[in-house]
From TrEMBL:
The B box-type domain, residue ranges: 200-241
Descriptive protein name: TRI46 protein
Low complexity compositional bias, start-end: 52-67
Keywords attached to this entry: Coiled coil, Cytoplasm, Cytoskeleton, Metal-binding, Repeat, Zinc, Zinc-finger
Annotated GO CC locations: axon cytoplasm; cytoskeleton; main axon
Residue ranges of every copy of the RING-type domain listed in the record: 13-49
PROSITE patterns xrefs: ZF_BBOX (PS50119), ZF_RING_1 (PS00518), ZF_RING_2 (PS50089)
Region described as Disordered: spans on this chain: 52-73
């Protein structure tokens, strides 16, 4: 058990603290998720590759990258001069190659060093397919070694094959049918993989099929991690879902309190109008 936990720590991305997804190998021999690397470069005002395009080996090539994907975040004014002096991009009056070519540095979160990615940035990195396969096999091993049993079978229990988020329980095939009879409300419950820890079913991004984690105030819509680094939301005001929820809840609470406080006044006015109508009819 301890050795498995130690192995799991080796398979965790130092940025998102979750198991690697499409890991890229940095020149310092450390690894980072493709989406995480894109976000880090975006935060530092550098070019980044579209994380929705699956990296191969190498991670991206000039022939497979669309020119519009080379997108830079809007740099702050105090950073603009530094970027222009260092040859960041092109601007009117400057010929490409007139200044030394820009080399993009990446702050490695593991060794705390700035590693040189060259001019192509993430496009020069290779996808660590070996590590990706190790992560996938580890996930399968964990699933096999930790068999989940049906919570409703009489002894001897059968292994669970389905889970239900609404019921917060795991079932074998027969028990799932028994507790979700045809023609009832429970028959509408969607089966999920069995688990011991049921989380509330989160909203999914219709475009990327990922769970939404942030809210774009500019577009007034929920966005996932992949949406955040897309060109569409550049310079938009994006906040975590929880922050947006709390702000909206406070606003609605104040509006509701105002409505309730004026309810008595409105009811009194309605009663007076009804009396006036009766008097007029008489």
């Amino acid at each position: 058990q301890t050795s498995m936990k130690n192995m799991e720590r080796e398979l965790v991305c130092p940025v998102c603290k979750e198991m690697y997804k499409q890991p890229l190998a940095l020149p310092c021999t450390h690894n980072v998720c493709h989406v995480c690397a894109s976000e880090v470069l975006l935060q530092h005002g550098h070019l980044y590759c579209d994380p929705t395009s699956e990296p191969t080996s190498p991670a991206a090539t000039p022939s497979t990258r669309s020119p519009r994907l080379g997108r830079r975040a809007v740099p702050k004014p105090d950073r603009l001069d530094r970027l222009l002096k260092s040859g960041f991009g092109t601007y009117p009056g400057r010929k490409r190659g007139a200044v030394h070519p820009q080399t993009i540095s990446f702050p490695c979160p593991a060794c705390q060093r700035d590693v040189d990615l060259g001019e192509r940035g993430l496009g020069s990195l290779f996808r660590n397919l070996t590590l990706e396969r190790v992560v996938e096999r580890y996930r399968q091993t964990i699933n096999i070694s930790a068999a989940i049993m049906c919570q409703f079978c009489k002894p001897p229990q059968l292994e669970a094959t389905k889970g239900c988020t609404e019921c917060k329980s795991s079932f074998c095939n027969e028990c799932f049918k028994l507790y979700h009879p045809w023609g009832t409300q429970k028959a509408q419950h969607e089966p999920t993989p069995p688990t011991l820890t049921f989380r509330p079913k989160g909203l999914m991004c219709p475009e990327h099929k990922e769970e939404v984690t942030h809210y774009c105030k500019t577009c007034q819509r929920l966005v996932c991690q992949l949406c955040r680094v897309r060109r569409t939301h550049t310079s938009h005001k994006i906040t975590p879902v929880l922050s947006a929820y709390q702000a909206l809840r406070e606003k609605l609470t104040k509006s509701l309190a105002y409505i309730l406080s004026s309810q008595d006044t409105v009811q009194t006015q309605i009663a007076e109008l009804e009396e006036t109508v009766k008097h007029t009819e008489v």
